[in-house]
Each structure stands twice: as C-alpha cells, then as structure tokens.
Design a protein that fits this description.
Blueprint: E1 11-15, H1 24-28, E2 33-37, E3 46-53, E4 62-70, H2 85-95, E5 103-108, E6 114-119
Antiparallel strand pairs: 1-2, 1-5, 3-4, 5-6
Length: about 120
C-alpha cells in the first residue's frame, strides 16, 4: 500500500474489486464499504538532533551533523473484527477466501477530496 497523510475527519473505505478503469471514474463506480473514520490523529511531528562541539583552539561552537525524523502513525481500527463485515472482508483478503484478490481502497478527506488506490 502507498503511504498518505490523514486528517481527523477522514473516512477509510474498501471494496473487494478492482476498477474497470484506473482513473477516478473507474474507482467512483465501485461499491464501497466504510472501514473506519479518523477521529484522533494524536500528537506528533518532527524531531531534530544536532551534533556539535567546541574546538579548543577557537572556542567557537561548530555544528557538524544531525538528523530530522518525522513520526509514522499506525491507526488501530477499533471495531469488532469478529462481527464487523467490513473487517471480516479485509481479514479474508490476508488469510481467507479472498487471499491474493485485488481490493481497492479510498480515503475521503474532510475537504471532500478522495484518494483512491488498489492492492493485492
């Protein structure tokens, strides 16, 4: 799967089918099941580390190297996997009757835009 940013209010959707055409119209024509909505993104962001030293000869701090890291977030889907039909569909794509089949998924953002992809 691809990685994309999410925002509170985004809705995750899935379909056990691939689009007839790989453009927006092909995906829009699919029948979607709502998987979950994002209600809490949590705190996060970038963190930076800078290595510095002060040479005895000059006494001036020299910054030589560092790194910047951004957090990855994994969203736990909170519905009952045993009873929720959409979660059962996803599970069957990994280790059940639909293993290896093509699934499509969509993220509907709060600004009404939608991101479409598929995986198998």
């Amino acid at each position: 799967m691809a990685q994309t940013d999410l925002a509170v209010g985004s809705v995750l959707k899935v379909c056990h089918a691939e689009p007839a055409t790989y453009d927006e119209a092909g995906y829009v024509a699919l029948t979607w099941l709502e998987l979950d909505d994002v209600v809490n993104v949590g705190a996060g962001g970038g963190s930076a580390t800078v290595q510095s030293y002060v040479p005895l000869k000059t006494g001036i701090t020299v910054k030589r190297a560092g790194q910047i890291e951004y957090q990855d977030r994994t969203f736990q889907l909170g519905r009952h996997v045993q009873t929720d039909s959409t979660h059962q569909l996803i599970k069957s794509g990994f280790d059940g009757a639909y293993k290896g089949d093509v699934f499509s998924w969509a993220i509907h953002y709060p600004d009404n835009s939608t991101y479409y992809r598929d995986w198998e």
